[in-house]
Design goal:
single chain; alpha+beta; 36% helix
């Protein structure tokens, strides 16, 4: 997911203020924007306490079968609910569509 400069600053500000609810809203808004073109939507997420090294955003299924998003800023989200073209989707469906491993999010540079 590629954020505009303005949205990126809003997200950084929300995280700096530890307003994780606002950060989640920004990410969900952006995910809905992406969904308009792809058919995938994130409906519910949970901010996980762990952090990773900032870099490219990616999506993967962990060993427990949880759908995890590693955000470009180093934040980590668990996707609790998502759909494809308005139909509920689960980790097994996603694994079947995407295969295993990690998948880069956002537009290609």
């Amino acid at each position: 997911m590629q954020l505009s400069d303005v949205r990126w600053l809003e997200l950084e500000d929300a995280i700096r203020r530890r307003d994780y609810k606002r950060a989640e809203e920004i990410l969900l808004d952006e995910a809905e924007h992406v969904a308009d073109t792809t058919g995938d939507r994130l409906l519910r997420t949970r901010v996980l306490g762990e952090r990773t090294r900032p870099g490219t955003a990616s999506l993967h299924l962990d060993a427990q079968g949880r759908l995890i998003v590693h955000c470009a800023d180093g934040g980590v989200l668990q996707v609790l609910e998502h759909d494809v073209d308005g139909k509920p989707d689960d980790a097994a469906d996603l694994r079947q569509r995407l295969g295993g491993g990690s998948h880069r999010l956002g537009a290609a540079p």
